[in-house]
Amino acid sequence: MPTRTQIARGLLAVLIFGGSLELYARLDDYISYGAPMWGVYNAETLYVRDAIGKRGIPHARFRKWGLNALGYRGPDLIDGRPTVVCFGASETFGQQEREGSEYPRQLEQELNARAGAQAYQVLNAAYAGQTVRTATLRVPEIAAMARPVTALIYGVPASYIEPPPLDAPPVPPGRIEQPRFELRIVDRVRTLLKGMIPGSVQTWLRSREINADRGAATAVARLPEANIQRYRDDLSKLVAALRQEGITPVLVTHVDAFGETLSDSDRALLTSWRKFYPTLQEEGFLDMERRANDAVRSLGAETGVPVIDLEKAMPTAPANFTDFAHFSDAGAAIVAKTLADGLLPILNRD
Amino acid sequence: MSQVSLLYAAAVLVVWMTARVSSSRPFRLWIYLAASWLFYFSLDARFLPLLVLSSVFNYYYGRLIRRQPRVGLLWAGALVNVALLGVFKYLPALRPLLSQSPFWQHVAELALPLGVSFWTFQALSYLFDQYRGDDTRPSMGEFCLYMGFAPTVMSGPICRVGDLVPQFRAPFAGSWASVREGAQGVWVGVGMITLARMLAAGHGGFGVADAFALRGTLGTADAWVMLLGYGFQIYFDFAGYSRLVIGVARMLGFQLPENFDRPYLSTSVTSFWQRWHMSLSFWIRDYVFLPLAMSRREVWWRHVSLVISMAVFGLWHSASWLFLLWGVYQGLMLVGHRLWQQLRRGAAPIGPRWLRSGASWLLTFLVIILSWTLFRAEGASHAAGILKAALIPTAGLQLPGGFVLLVLGLVAGYFASQLAVSRVPQRAPGLLSWLPMPARFACYAAIFYLAVFRAAEAQGFIYAQF
């Protein structure tokens, strides 16, 4: 039987070990990213909330993500240089790519390489979770600050699975609410454990979580047509808002990591996607993507807005994605090339 | 399954628990063997049959040699093992000389079985020892375990039958004390491997490999920083790996031979080779140098034997002119040291002792660091370029400041830690055991953090390629 002293020493050892890990995590953040040693440090520290929703804090930085003077990801804009603005959500913001490899940055390099000079700049006006509706509300502000000539719209149909966010009660402007204290080591350990758990176990755990999150709500196999229509209507409003500001809109179809036939790993990936939207069954996601992209194409044809069909151009090879829809560095390069192919004739024409 | 993974740690724990509760020695042996083969299978399933085949062949061949100790029989057995090594290790290097026929091209493209150099040398030492009348008579299971023992199968230390087999026969020795002692070794090993990976990953995405890729633009300071970086990367990597596997074996109750003993503190090349990759160094001494040197009585022949032995040492790594040159260089340095010792015998010492020791250490250190050029360069012209940059003074520093600071910081930190350790009385075995408990656990946490969260991912061990 261990004595009280032994138990106390053991507890002290665990405490020192854990406390040291937390200290090293903070030191690591400080050395690597210039993060504050104390206080909270997470992606939400990049943003404040205004009347429209989330907006970036000028020159804020979290790990590899740095915002410019306008509060958008990337370098500061140069006066007088034609600007292309990219609207979208996390795929456009660049969640997984290395710094400078997100597709708006690669698009800028691609456009300038083809122009043979620093002729264009790209403003990445996206953040994780941004909807087409909030993007529309930001158009006058972006038009005034950046005076873009063209806007790429990479809408995310999945954000139309749940009820419209504006139906929720408005959140007062100000800082985004943060916990008073957080253990930075916890996130690292969680990621580590996630990498260690076999894929099948992770899928099982996710399924349990989905069922718990869904609660009493019924999961539908097919997204109702009204939701697709809402997506189309919001895109239509964004197009109109852009045109009103004299900006040429360009629609882009949404692409995901799934091919024609689904493998077991694809099914596991669908479950991980569904974790964010528990009310739509796995099989409903691919149907939703197809119908939403059809809506984008028909909207383009109807309103005369050019459509870059990324869905058709992008190979669904696993190397191009880091999960169900976010791009790897290589994937973002393909997106940038495809967009540059479609965009250059429009930029030259304008 | 990497040896620096939580899965490996879990597997070690399961094996330890199973062995601990088992009172049957044969059962424990089979558990160890099954776990070892499973581990090897998990590394590369294709080569397990080769390891098993080599084990079975050498087991029966060793028995034959013991019954009929004839030199012809011994050399035939040795030839079979060297041929096995040659097919996988040396044929690819001879590719340009081989016929262009599809068969030879296919042979030249064979993948190198993991650890083949290590376990083949274990098989060879077994055959030699049987010929010399070694009394250890392993059973088939014991011999297979000796050949494929999980901690050592990938990159050594190269063991001898006489050291390992008696431990397989002994009662289970994985006590709590040995677990604690082994765990300390594992921690230190993981820490050293992490330092190696930090040097590989470098600073700001610029690591040791990137420095070697800067051909033709190196100044003298660049060349020395780069060679220092590589010298310490390979030391931390292989010595850390060795410490880890010795620690794992210790946890299971086995005592493996040490492979490194602070070699960069050596004050002569002879001393360095008694402290660097000791299991191979002693293997070469016992089975190449001594038989060769004793075949003639002349002093010059002893020197030639030394150079030949070190050339074999170099070629053990790979069939390349650079490794051969590296071995010959080491051999010549060893001969040079012997001649210097003979020259100075009886002469009055020059200067104070600390100055003599300091100068000896510095000279040895520089000679060894310079030799890594031949070990790491990607061709003769690359090596020549680095040597030229290192030996002909050129101004300027091309390497990024962050990388230079990282290398110099780690080197200075290493020597400072050695100095600190040497001044603290050792109360218990293990590098960190002299620290008070809170500091020790803070160090463990630092090692854990660096190894798990900061070390470059998915990077193999340098010596796994040999």
Question: What characteristics describe this protein?
Answer:
heterodimer; A: 350 residues; alpha/beta; Rossmann fold; five-stranded parallel sheet; three-stranded antiparallel sheet; 11 helices; B: 466 residues; mainly alpha; 2 domains; 70% helix; globular
The CATH superfamily of chain A turns out to be SGNH hydrolase
Number of structural domains of chain A: 1
- Interface with most residues: A-B, 14 and 14 residues
Q: SS-based structural class of chain B?
A: mainly alpha
Rg of chain B: 23 Å
Task: Describe what this molecule looks like in 3D.
The complex is a heterodimer of chains A (350) and B (466). With 350 residues, chain A is an alpha/beta fold. In chain A, 48% of the residues lie in helices and 9% in strands. In chain A, helix 7 (225-244) runs parallel beside helix 9. Chain B has 466 residues and is mostly helical. Chain B folds into two domains: 23-172, no CATH class; 177-465, no CATH class. In chain B, helix 4 (71-90) packs antiparallel against helix 6 (116-131) and helix 16 packs antiparallel against helix 17 (353-376). Chain B is globular, with a radius of gyration of 23 Å. Chains A and B meet through helix 1 and helix 5 of A and helix 20 of B.
